[in-house]
Amino acid sequence: MPEANSLFGKYDVGKLLGCGAFAKVYHARDINTGRSVAIKIINKSRISHNAHLVANVKSEIDIMRRLRYPYIVKLYEVMATKTRIYFVMEFVKGGELFEKVEKGRLTESLSRKYFQQLISAIGYCHSRGVYHRDLKPENLLIDENGDLKVSDFGLSAVTGQIRADGLLHTLCGTPSYVAPEILTKRGYDGAKADIWSCGVILFVMNAAFLPFSDSNLMMLYKKIYDGEYRCPKWMSPDLRQLLSRLLDIKPETRITVDEIHNDPWFKKGYKEPKVDGDLETPVKYEHNKLTALNAFDIISFSSGLNLSPLFDGTSSSPGQGERLLVAESPENVIGKVEEIVKEANVMIRKRNEFVVDLVGQNGNDVIGIEVFRLTESVTVVEVNSSGGGTDFYDDLWNRKIRSELVERRDVQ
Q1: Which of the residues are catalytic?
Q2: How does pLDDT run across 61-96, given as a tens digit for each residue?
Q3: Same domain for 249 and 351?
Q4: Model confidence over 352-410: pLDDT tens digits?
Q5: Is there a domain that residue 289 lies in?
Q6: Dist. CA 198–CA 135, nearest whole Å
Q7: Do residues 143 and 255 share a domain?
Q8: pTM score, whole prediction
Q9: CA distance 156 to 148
Q10: Both 117 and 224 in a single domain?
Q11: Which strands, in side-by-side order, build the sheet including 321-326?
C-alpha cells in the first residue's frame, strides 16, 4: 500500500484488488472527478534487474496507450517515482470472466455475447498491428453493464517485432491456451495464434473445462499439437462447427476474424459497438514506429514517447539527447537535416524515411535523429547521441541543426 492514501494529490487510493509477483492493483478515486479507477503499482526494484521484464512493462504502456475501444480496458495515465511506476486504468467492476466460468458453464447465448465482444476487440487490435498473445479468461474482465473488456497486454507483440519471414518467434502465453504452431518454435502469425486462444476461451465458456488438459506438460503440448479434444454433448452443431474452425491446428486454414463475422453461430444477435470518435484515432505504422499518435499521447506527451525516464528516473537533456516539438512535417525536418549535414562533412546513414544517423569522421560519434508526426501540424524530433563525443554533438546538433529547427518552429 502506498505510504499515503493520496497519490500525487490526484487519486485517493483504496482497497487492494489483487497482486502478482511484480505489481499490486488498487481501487482508487480521482479526486477531481470522483471517477473510480484501478491503479497498477509496479515496484521498480523487482523488475530492474531483468531486462525482459522491463521490456514487457514498456511494451504494455506503449500498446495500451494507443488502444481506445469499448471492449478494451483503457489506460488513462502513467506516472512514476524513483521507486514505482503507476498505471492509472479504467476500473472494471465485475471481475474476471474466469470467476464466472469457475462457478459453472455459461449459457450459449451469454458465451456468444462475450465471444462477439472478444472478437470485436481482437479484430480492432490486429488492425492496429497489436497481437495480445496471452488471451485467457483471467485476462478478460466484465464491467457493471455485463460487457467484456480485454486487459493485460504485458505479453503483447506489435508489427515491429515481426521478423523478415513475416512471423513472430517469441514463445509465450499460457500453456492450455497456446496455439500449436507456437510450440514448434519455427515462427507464427500473431493474429492466427490469438484466434486459437479465442477458440479455447469459447470452449471453456460453454463447457466449464479446458479442451486440452493434462498434468504432464509434454502430454498437454502433444494434445494441442494433435488438436485432440472432444466437445460435450450439450454444444449445438453450429457451435461445434465454429470451434472446429477456431481450433484448426493448421494456421493457414484456421478461420480469420472476417470469416468469424460471417459465421452463422457468431452472427446471431451481433451488434457493432458504438465507438466514440474522440477516443478512437487510427494509428499508422512506418518502419516499426508510429507516424501518428492518439489523444492519449498528446495529453501525456512529456513522458509518452521515451519511456526510459519511467525506469531510470532521468530525463533527456541537451548534450545527451532531447525531444523537440516542431511546426514542420516529418519530411521537411529530415530534408532540413540532410541539407545542413551536406555542408558539415558528416556522413548521413538513413535507417528509414524518418530515422537517420549522423556519423562523425572518427566513425564512433553518432547522432541519431528520429521524427514522429504528433498532429497534422506538429512533429516530434527525438535526438540521441552515442560515442561520447560531446564536441561533435554540441557543434552539429546544438549549434547547427537544433538552432535552425528552433528558429523555424512556432510550437510552445
Answers
A1: 134
A2: 777 877 889 999 998 888 877 788 888 999 998 888
A3: no
A4: 788 888 888 777 788 888 887 765 667 778 888 876 667 888 888 888 888 787 755 44
A5: no
A6: 7
A7: yes
A8: 0.66
A9: 19
A10: yes
A11: 321-326, 379-386, 366-373, 355-359, 347-352
